[in-house]
Amino acid sequence: STTLTFLRGAAGAPLPALRIGPPDATPVRGTVLFVQPPGDDQPAGRRFAVRVARHFATLGWASVIADPAGTGDGPGWIAADGGLVVDDPDANVDADAPLPPRLDALDIWRGDLLTAAAWVRRMSDGPFVLIGLRAGTRLANDLALALDQLADGLVLLEVPLEAEAPGTGLPAPLARALAALPVTPRPLGERGVAPWLLVAQS
């Protein structure tokens, strides 16, 4: 079954979350949160995520594809200086009105993904896996670190090489901030179990 839910995002705006899973009466064996690449790679990343999520659904897994603010169908846009602008949907449109304040895109994306992860994990007591694609691999690993070993698995697909600019099409300040995020998992701590890690390059 496929459903679209709007969660409350970190900027106070709706956070679109597409759930693709087995039929409603079927027990969910595990859950997946796809972390899409921001920028020009996002449409292709979304198509890949939907295709894989549909396959996972046949195996009894539920997947969620969320669009953080300024990406995909998420509200707002990325300004030329790399800041995130999120309009108030209830505000009157006035050409002379000042633009809404710039927000820190990475902070909002972190908050949106944490919200989506908490929602996904409530769907099943089974394993919870994060899958990041391209520049989304850095966000996925950043999310895994924030979750502090609550993810059972971390899959990083097509990790951008050091010479590449993560987040093709993003303003330079935001692309640099995204590139600075690590793509190495947290070492095993005294409490909990480190997630298993899969890295795949073409």
The residue ranges in which pLDDT falls below 50 over 5 or more consecutive positions are none
Q: What is the strand content?
A: 15-25%
User: Into which percent range does the helicity of residues fall?
Assistant: 25-40%
Report the radius of gyration as a whole number of Å. Answer: 17 Å
Order of helices and strands: EEEHEEEHEHEHE
Count of extended strands? 9
Overall geometry comes to: globular
The largest pleated sheet is described as:
7 strands, mixed
Query: Terminal Cα separation, in Å?
Result: 31 Å
Keywords:
202 residues; alpha/beta; 7-stranded mixed β-sheet; two-stranded antiparallel ribbon; 9 strands; 27% helix
Question: Would you give an account of this structure?
Answer:
This protein has 202 residues and is of the alpha/beta class. Helix content is 27%, strand content 23%. It has four helices and nine strands; from the N terminus they run βββαβββαβαβαβ. The chain has helices at residues 42-58, 105-121, 136-147, 172-179; strands at residues 2-8, 14-20, 30-35, 61-66, 77-78, 84-85, 128-133, 153-157, 196-200. The strands form two sheets. Strands 1-2-4-3-7-8-9 form a seven-stranded mixed beta sheet, sandwiched between helices. The protein has a two-stranded antiparallel ribbon with strand order 5-6. Helix 3 links the parallel strand 7 and strand 8. Helix 2 (105-121) packs across helix 3. The relative contact order is 0.18. The mean pLDDT is 85.
Task: Give the SSE layout.
Layout lengths: L1 E7 L5 E7 L9 E6 L6 H17 L2 E6 L10 E2 L5 E2 L19 H17 L6 E6 L2 H12 L5 E5 L14 H8 L16 E5 L2
Parallel strand pairs: 3-4, 3-7, 7-8, 8-9
Antiparallel strand pairs: 1-2, 2-4, 5-6
